[in-house]
Structures are given as structure tokens and as C-alpha cells.
Design brief:
Layout: E1 2-8, E2 10-13, E3 18-26, E4 33-39, E5 46-52, E6 57-59, E7 67-72, E8 77-82, E9 91-98, E10 102-104, E11 108-113
Parallel strand pairs: 2-11
Antiparallel strand pairs: 1-3, 3-8, 4-5, 4-9, 5-6, 7-8, 9-10, 9-11
Amino acid sequence: QVQLVESGGGLVQAGGSLSLSCAASGSIISTNIMGWYRQAPGKQRELVARIASSYSTNYADSVKGRFTISRDNAKNTVYLQMNNLKPEDTAVYYCFLWSRTDYWGKGTLVTVSS
């Protein structure tokens, strides 16, 4: 079993920055993909960014150039640096880890005020 614990998030004004982190613990297979989805009120969950254990990355078009995903394989931790935040980035952000089984965090709320 794998547990994911998210931290970060909160309230920020438009144009500001926030950083999220997600630490995985338990029986972790070294070859995996970690990342973040988000879900805004009344909308479907969408992929924000993901990073493989090989450090290859993918981003949603809406966050390219503003968000940066990184990871520390030794700590089994993934980070999301969010810059130039916009009100439309307001959502609950969920960390995930994909390996033989998919694991999800409980989510952390990011609110961007205009």
C-alpha cells in the first residue's frame, strides 16, 4: 500500500505563486509516474502535470510556462511550483502516483483571488 500526503496550497492573489508538495510512503515501485490533477467546482478533473521517475514531464496547455513539476526520487516526493497564478487555477489539486496500482492523495485547495 502507498500513502500520499500533500502539503501547500492556500489563498493567493492573481499573479502570485504557490508551491505544492506530495510525499509518497509505503511499498513504492521505483518506476512510476507522479503528478497532479485538479478539479474546479462544477468541472471535471483535469491533468495539470506529471513527471516520470525518468524525469520526463508533461503539462496541460493551460499551465505551460507558469507551472513547473519536479521530483526527488530519493524522497519519493513530487513538487509543483505554480507562478503567475490566475483565478481559473482555483481548484482542489490532487497528487497521484501511477505504478502497477494508481494511488491518490486527499487533495489540497488552491484559491486564487482576482
